[in-house]
Amino acid sequence: MEHSMLLLLSRSHRMVYDISVAAVTASILSNSRLFRSRSARRLLALRRGHSLPLPGLWIMYAVDSVCPSLFPNAPHVAIPYKARGKYRRKSGALSCSTSIMRNGCLRDYGFRNISKRFLSSKCKCQRAESTSGDANNTWFTEPVSKADHILGELNGQKVVNFENGSVIMPNDVSVNQSSDKTRGNSFEDEAWRLLQESVVYYCGTPVGTIAAKDPSDSGSSVLNYDQVFIRDFIPSGMAFLLMGEYEIVRNFILHTLQLQSWEKTMDCHSPGQGLMPASFKVRTVPLDGDDSATEEVLDPDFGEAAIGRVAPVDSGLWWIILLRAYGKCSGDLSVQERIDVQTGIKMILKLCLADGFDMFPTLLVTDGSCMIDRRMGIHGHPLEIQALFYSALVCAREMLAPEDGSADLIRALNNRLIALSFHIREYYWVDKRKLNEIYRYKTEEYSYDAVNKFNIYPDQISPWLVEWIPEKGGYFIGNLQPAHMDFRFFSLGNLWSIVSSLATTHQSLAILDLIEAKWSDLVADMPFKICYPALEGQEWQIITGSDPKNTPWSYHNGGSWPTLLWQLTVACIKMNRPEIAAAAIEVAEKRIAADRWPEYYDAKRARFIGKQARLYQTWSIAGFLVAKLLLKNPDAARNIWNDEDAEIVNALNIIVDSNPRKRGRKVFKKTYII
Ligand code: GLC
């Protein structure tokens, strides 16, 4: 009896559903008003998602489609609707305590608030969910005074000069300190003021910072620099955390989390569910059904609108890193413990740890999937992504709540961490000794015991590298693929390998040695070269596709990016060599404010403001500020870096003891489960 009732119910459910879908389909064909209606689009979204709500709702949707005014306060299924009807939340991603965007506004969707959801169908802008219960908008005024207080206390750092690649400590440090103090403070004040001016609000709440706020830039030349970029916000977020301003970071984390599970499509194809957007914009649009009112919507770009349609692989990794830093700096672990946040972490991890065809533990990505978001020959396994991947895995492991359902994921994560660190430390590392080894490689070794595993032809060692590799120091190469080593020095990947402890202590120190030795190439007149050397001539033509923005020694192709100062500073403090960062900051201070905080500099020695560089670029401002704040309070950098993990070190020792060069096959037969 019960069974037949259920059957009947499910049949009627199905019938109403089919009728509704048929009506919608018919309306598409006739391009009627019905299709343009909100409910019809929701129905289609549901059809695609195979999620069937109650029959009653279907009836209501069908009627609502024809006559929306009949149900002004109708309950809405948990599918976000966006003004252009392009995104929906995947039904499977819904969980209790998550917040749902509907009509662009954040709605608390926790089960305990379910009645609220049904009571109100009108969009009300809300905070991401206040932990403190303080939902007023006093955020903006308070940090000014707090920050002024902190900035007022800042004094100069140890000043050093680099000449011809060597460090010279000035004898009279006090003289330099006092001048640094006067000058430095005004720069920091300005940086802090500009950072505050770059804050973007959503429904009155600070949610991020705009990429650039150049008053001279207008119209079409703004491109997407008026958006909040996930990667660009990281130094802003770190600056706010260091200043004790936690709310904007918390809001950013929770709002971007909402965007994670929206459906994103490019020409009918949807990338993985855990993908985080590259950027988002707060748009003001007319309110549905009410021409006289407007509402704000968060409009994410997952790469579908980006130049070159590049996937922002780094966004989710940075998001995890910032989340951990938020917990460490604020002491508020309630954000990372939330179920929706835990789900968000797992979705990113699942996407990154999914099985593929790969032979390597490194993450396989397309060109332009990170800070360098144009074609620069970094497809495959670029170092920057690997360092961020490693860092995100370590941070996630720290934050994931132990529960039965995550055991497999945590096991996969641990195995990947070990394999990844072994792979990078062993195969990406070059110094003079290793280069000489590669120079003498035998090729075409078919065997499990091959020394030259990736069949690298020694001719790949370019003449520049033979001259460039210093006696003391080394670095991780940019990319490794079969028969291909990209020997370019990529700064962010190397710096973040130090910060995340992907590099050994010895390697970390050697990278800093190399930076000192190659000061005039990597810092020169403005820190810090994004990669060295530039691609020139035919190489530039073939690899960049003759990209006029990436001409030699410009932009991503050997340009200098002041934002990298903050990563340099964390790395230097971690390795107890802050004087290197102090010297780089000293160089930047000479002109960065006068130059109006450019996005990047051009030419071999970074003498020119970049050809198409935005001015008042927020992450240049924030990167500088974070560097200054950390030098003043080096202990705070602990909240950003990852200490070397003893378990990983043990596992790696076992691998090294097994002598992988001679017994490679046996080594990889082992599985390390921690
Ligand atoms: C450029 C940079 C990218 C940055 C964006 C916004 O596209 O390559 O890394 O996120 O500008 O500043």
Automatic annotation (TrEMBL):
Family, per entry: Belongs to the glycosyl hydrolase 100 family.
PANTHER family: NEUTRAL_ALKALINE INVERTASE 3, CHLOROPLASTIC (PTHR31916:SF28), PTHR31916
The organism's taxonomic lineage, starting at the top: Eukaryota, Viridiplantae, Streptophyta, Embryophyta, Tracheophyta
Protein name according to UniProt: Alkaline/neutral invertase
Keywords: Carbohydrate metabolism, Glycosidase, Hydrolase
Coiled-coil segments: none
Taxonomic source organism: Ensete ventricosum (Abyssinian banana)
GO BP field: sucrose catabolic process
Catalytic reaction list: Hydrolysis of terminal non-reducing beta-D-fructofuranoside residues in beta-D-fructofuranosides
